[in-house]
Amino acid sequence: MSKRSKQRLKSGAKKSKNQRRTQKHLIQTLFKNAHDAIALIDDRLYFVDMNLAACDLLGLPRQKLKGQPLSTFIAGQFPRQPKEEGSFPPGQSLMGELLVSSSAQIRKEVEYTLTPNILPHFHLLLLRDISQPKESMQAELRQQQQRVELFSEVTLKIRQSLQLKEILHTTVTEVQRILQADRVLIYHVLPDGTGKTISEAVLPDYPTLMDLEFPQEVFPEEYQQLYAQGRVRAIANVHDPAAGLADCLVEFVDQFHIKAKLIVPIVQTLNAHSQNQLWGLLIAHQCKSDRHWVDFELELMQQLADQISIALSQAQLLEHLEEIVEVRTAELQDVNRNLQQEINVRMQAEAALRQSEEQLRLITNALPVLIAYVDEKQQYRFNNQAYHDWLGQSPGEIYGCHLRQVWGEDCYQKMQVYVEKTLSGQAVNYENDIILKDGSWRSVDVTYIPDVDDQKTVKGFFALSSDISDRKAIERMKDEFISVISHELRTPLTSLHSALKILATGRLGTLSDEGQQMLGIADDSTVRLVRLVNNVLDLQRIESGKVIIECQACNAANLMIQAAEAMQAMAQQHEVTLVKQPQDISVWADADYILQALTNLLSNAIKFSSPFSTVWLTVEQEEGSSNQNSPTEVVFRVRDEGQGIPADQLERIFERFQQVDSSDSRKKGGTGLGLTICRKIIEQHNGKIWAESNPGCGSTFAFTLPLTENRTNADLPT
Fold first, then answer.
1. Residues 6+ apart with CB under 8 A from 379
2. Which of 106, 263, 379, 462 is a Cys-bridge partner for 233, taking CB atoms 3.0 to 4.6 Å apart?
3. Per the confidence metrics, is the pTM higher than 0.70?
């Protein structure tokens, strides 16, 4: 071998050795900086090295974990390439979920990512604990189910009685049992402005308020007007000045050892043209100590107050039954006098109806939807040919049959509540699953339209059912697609974050101050993007209420500064000046989601601005628009000098895939989803978002957030 060949071999070996040393150094840096459990395993799936997070997860120190097989700590078999022992697909990461058992036999669900061959014959394994979020979600679902069952139980007991006195007694008894309150009572407001307790459930340790008349000064007219408008008061401490109770009322409740109270109005609407009338109050007392009332307790009291209002209406209806019968009798006498004439008219109408029905049947039989008419007794009086095609029952077989006979008991139980609502005069729309004659399932969209005559009497209803199985399948495919995309994004973003962390250490070269600052901004943006990608599925479920926005006190100035810094590079690229006017205002919000909304709006403003123009980001406090006494709110605004938006597009642009100019939006990288996501985020914060624009003069996008101080005091009565 020549001397030159030997030198090349020696140089190659040295270079390979340096590369391995650099790779090992990078892995050690990753172990040191990562928060998740990370381990290095060999081809046999034995542990070679790991970080402290992995030791904590598996319950063993580092020295004892080294050389241990991975199979010792997982339930089931770890996925591997079947062709060869220990081999994995080259250049591909494996992801999934595992059940991990530590040395102390503590089991946890983890999400894993395996990056093969990060070193020759060595693979990088990342484990992320996901057991706690699943347990929290299951606990929340169990709590919601218990609340629904409690309310259903109390409502059923109320509706099983027709006697008003018994209904009121059942209400206070059940509320006291559920809330564990010291006293629950129903206070009836008398016409002269005074009032008295007419039903009560109280513990033996405290005095009764039954039949006690309350003087007018402790319940003045202005209080009555507020309660008539539906005001609910949750007072944790009656002596707290923030509760806003008059001194005479505090002195009055002190006689009965009342420390906290929850007050819900019982309101009646006498007719469609009159204002609400305050009938009384449903009140819960806590006497032994102060008490902070939770949302479920307020909701339960409000719903039961509504049930009492319905019971009052029914009681009044029974009281006036004789009067109604007398009026109805007079109407029937008038009807009888015209009966003979109507018989002749009806005979002619029936002939015309038969001809009209035949024409209607010809038209409806050609439509691929279920069309029927059901009378007030829930019996079929008309149905088209689609019933035979779908259910195998001809129109003649169905005619005169009850809904229960045609659809079966299980399906009828699902539709019964909608049928009854329709027969009360309300049009309804809902979705249901039905079984066809061949045993297959179909998802259908059902619409019931009441048939009301001139006397406002419901004679029956029209039923239309269309097949939406394909739409449901597409929605499922969409959800699966979003889930897959979310998982596919998570791994490269994690790798990007790790790379940025390594660059920030300076071990791969020294950056200038400006470069270090830009690297920091990129790292912060990557961290936020990782969190947002992990929550993208939650955003898809915002409308269903399954995602909880975690709000806390945030500084508006910090949010604006972070959003502006994140978009500064884009502004410089487009030669746009970004001007921010931050103010130190504390808002109640989820910082990550509000940052996403701000960056979305800034990105749109920059993209649709001309070079050398300006984009402004401002914030200020403004009075609420609902009434003069409403609390102040915080308004963020993003204003640009772009081409503007036509007035007829200002609402549509917040809908999915709606763009003013789709061709221009594609050139600028728009997807038509940014403003939709912003709207969902702001609505979840109990705010509102809107756009203002004059074509050719730029646009302003604004949204509101609640003040932190208003959030803590909003429920306190004034």
1. 400, 401, 402, 403
2. 263
3. no
